[in-house]
Amino acid sequence: xxxxxxxxxxxxxxxxxxxxxxxxxxxxxxxxxxxxxxxxxxxxxxxxxxxxxxxxxxxxxxxxxxxxxxxxxxxxxxxxxxxxxxxxxxxxxxxxxxxxxxxxxxxxxxxxxxxxxxxxxxxxxxxxxxxxxxxxxxxxxxxxxxxxxxxxxxxxxxxxxxxxxxxxxxxxxxxxxxxxxxxxxxxxxxxxxxxxxxxxxxxxxxxxxxxxxxxxxxxxxxxxxxxxxxxxxxxxxxxxxxxxxxxxxxxxxxxxxxxxxxxxxxxxxxxxxxxxxxxxxxxxxxxxxxxxxxxxxxxxxxxxxxxxxxxxxxxxxxxxxxxxxxx
Amino acid sequence: xxxxxxxxxxxxxxxxxxxxxxxxxxxxxxxxxxxxxxxxxxxxxxxxxxxxxxxxxxxxxxxxxxxxxxxxxxxxxxxxxxxxxxxxxxxxxxxxxxxxxxxxxxxxxxxxxxxxxxxxxxxxxxxxxxxxxxxxxxxxxxxxxxxxxxxxxxxxxxxxxxxxxxxxxxxxxxxxxxxxxxxxxxxxxxxxxxxxxxxxxxxxxxxxxxxxxxxxxxxxxxxxxxxxxxxxxxxxxxxxxxxxxxxxxxxxxxxxxxxxxxxxxxxxxxxxxxxxxxxxxxxxxxxxxxxxxxxxxxxxxxxxxxxxxxxxxxxxxxxxxxxxxxxxxxxxxxxxxxxxxx
Lengths: 327, 342
Known about the structure:
The structure holds two protein chains of two kinds. Chain A is an alpha/beta fold. Chain A contains twelve helices and 14 strands. Chain B has 13 helices and eight strands. The termini of chain B are far apart. Chain B is of the alpha/beta class.
């Protein structure tokens, strides 16, 4: 059985069920309670679970992310909402130096079962400080899992895994997807980390992406199909761990790869993914791996410039055509 | 020795003679042991047996000892990187601490943390942190968790004067005060004001040199204490711990103390302070102060003092030997403990 839910409702329902099931789950964040959540992921949670479990915090990212790490060390299962991932930079030391590492430097004496979630990436005309994609930053650090769901089903399945694991999870949502609908399986079906999904089968080229960019890749694949090119589309779902096996197996079959990311090109996720492809499929590649990325500029405010700064379906189509030497 | 600028009055809270004094003899023994431990650790550092940084606690012993003497076995605590004595006071075997400093498999963290990251979770020590101030939010959240879980356990958070100028001090302390209104934050912040953040003195880094009063700005009750006098610290600690346990509200204390050694083992010349100042503070060595008190009360005689010092020498010598003879962590240990899963 499955029901059609929005991405937002998939997150809400999953969080709510898990809070009903596990009294150790507590939520912290700015305006998640009385205000009902900036993106209404936690609407009605305060009434349902009370202020000890739904903690409205001051605007102190360092403070409340760090406090959540401490709660996790003591066996609670805090879920922190960062209003957007841009603000997580204020708590970067807590995430990168404490949450990610203290299991290791304590010699395995403590776990940090912490989920930090919120929207990542560009919105609409939010300009330079509120439009960043930070996945490569967090995926660089050992000790963190980095999750980037593309569909409501991903959101539910990956959140269940995050909420039941023992490690800190960076859970990257995308505000533009909150209203997107999709089939979500009923019941208790966590999606393990490190399992990419092949969203579309094809034999000419593999398009690899995650989060919102998966939808652009699917649209581009439909357009390419009209010109006789069958693209395989892979939704990575998690960047750390990275499902190397699925993407290498696909590229060894299609001989061509295009990696799509919203973030800036230098040192981005696509560079790592391309390197993985070269390591695992070099002998079978018929063209260099192509990268489709955001423009290497701080995000501009003007809508026309913003659209130029973000990847577009036509960029993916053009990249695929380059791998097929059809330009 | 309260800060003059803050107009502070250090509480005079003497322990009456009697059972309190007798029960302080084991703490005298531990203070002697940790002083010896630090001296020998420094020698091992000079011999190249200990790598990285090595921050010694010599001179500040009465602060951690006084507070750790006042909490229960199931209470917990967090501290910064000057943490060897905190672990040993709590009962972590000195040889396991020394082995950690030597980077050996038998260390408390299997040689993965070193001097700055001592952990002994079964004994309530939740680290050992290397970024100044960054453990304060952890301790604050941990205190919330203790209450959330329905216990009356409390959390101690030791921090230095240098940590108080960071955002990682003000943000969680403000939250602790808010949570405390609902009785949800049983934490004692213990500022170990040893006068210098590395080489920068308190009065060169803040105008408000009465550090305890900074907690007051966030609505947290606070006081100062003479951090060189174990009996005074312990007495204050017992009162504060009982109160925090009962109310679930945070409380802060600034212990005026002094580090008789450099910031780290590499701080040889100490250009930020003069020898006269160090000599002056040596007159207020916390071990000698406690020794005199116990002597005066008749619960410790010269023979016992000599025996305690001899025992400390032997224990630390054994710890050094143990650390030296312990194996290095095997290569297989490298990827272990990064994550609980996968």
